[in-house]
């Protein structure tokens, strides 16, 4: 078997949160292209993602949950629903994320709690539920978290987002320390500024957009397709000895 064969994800099931559009949709389709069946989860309609996954000849199941309500019981329910629909679970991608832009002096408690729940708490609870499944099945598994370049920097007007993404980076390391010896790989991808709904306001602000693009050596916004390779790598057997890594896919942003 060649090393290229070890990138294949045939006969594996991936649960991807926030899969209705943007980065989550791109990752879901990328995993399907590599052979995985996909369970797409979002609070939004998932018809488009489902069609794209099916077009790759893979199975696709959809789950609608609101991760603002994240807790341990809901996470067990989501993982249970995934296994009930698809038969098993091999890969969890904690992609779902929201952002609330405002000066720190004006951040309301509801906005803060929503961002923490979706971006950080849901990732922990789902990782915990998935890891329990992996341990019970005795065959290990892969967990991929979506960090950010703001896991390493404070950003501007996004205190809650930056805090949760820094938390995701260290949560990734902490869980990998505990679970690596059980065959569970926990890693993260750290994107920079991508063409998604989350950056519409930034890309629409001519001055801010020019400033951001001027700092990205690649000279362009990232596209969801740019994350496919990193996701497939971390989900595959090739990454079996990769634990606790935060892989930047940032057009060179962190190198500046």
Task: Please outline what is shown here.
Helices cover 42% and strands 15% of the residues. The chain is of the alpha/beta class and 256 residues long. Helix 4 (109-137) links the parallel strand 4 and strand 5.
What is the topology?
Layout: E1 13-17, H1 22-33, E2 37-42, H2 47-54, E3 60-64, H3 72-86, E4 91-94, H4 109-137, E5 141-146, H5 159-179, E6 184-191, H6 200-204, H7 206-215, H8 228-235, E7 246-249
Helix pairs in contact: 1-2, 1-8, 3-4, 4-5
The tally of helices reads 8
What is the rounded Rg? 17 Å
Main sheet: strands, sense, barrel? 7 strands, parallel
CATH class type: Alpha Beta
Q: Taking all residues together, what is the mean pLDDT?
A: 96
Oligomeric state of the chains? single chain
Q: How does CATH name the architecture?
A: 3-Layer(aba) Sandwich
Helix content: 40-55%
Q: Are there runs of 5+ residues with pLDDT below 50, and where?
A: none
CATH homologous superfamily grouping: NAD(P)-binding Rossmann-like Domain
Shape designation: globular
- Coarse structural class: alpha/beta
Strand content: 5-15%
């Amino acid at each position: 078997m060649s090393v290229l064969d070890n990138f294949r994800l045939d006969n594996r099931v991936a649960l991807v949160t926030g899969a209705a559009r943007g980065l989550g949709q791109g990752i879901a389709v990328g995993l399907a292209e590599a052979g995985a069946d996909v369970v797409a989860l979002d609070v939004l309609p998932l018809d488009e993602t489902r069609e794209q996954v099916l077009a790759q000849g893979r199975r696709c199941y959809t789950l609608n949950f609101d991760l603002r309500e994240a807790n341990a019981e809901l996470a067990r329910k989501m993982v249970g629903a995934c296994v009930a629909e698809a038969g098993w679970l091999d890969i969890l991608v904690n992609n779902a994320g929201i952002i609330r832009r405002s000066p720190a002096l004006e951040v309301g408690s509801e906005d803060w709690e929503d961002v923490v729940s979706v971006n950080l708490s849901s990732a922990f609870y789902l990782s915990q539920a998935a890891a329990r499944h992996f341990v019970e099945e005795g065959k290990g598994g892969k967990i991929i978290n979506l960090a950010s370049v703001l896991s390493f920097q404070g950003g501007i007007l996004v205190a809650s987002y930056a805090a949760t993404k820094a938390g995701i980076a260290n949560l990734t390391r902490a869980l990998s320390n505990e679970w690596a010896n059980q065959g569970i790989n926990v890693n993260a991808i750290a994107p920079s500024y991508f063409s998604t709904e989350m950056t519409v306001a930034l890309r629409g602000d001519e001055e801010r957009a020019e400033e951001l693009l001027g700092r990205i050596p690649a000279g362009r916004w990232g596209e969801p397709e740019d994350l496919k390779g990193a996701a497939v790598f971390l989900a595959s057997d090739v990454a079996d000895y990769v634990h606790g890594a935060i892989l930047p896919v940032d057009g060179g942003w962190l190198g500046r």
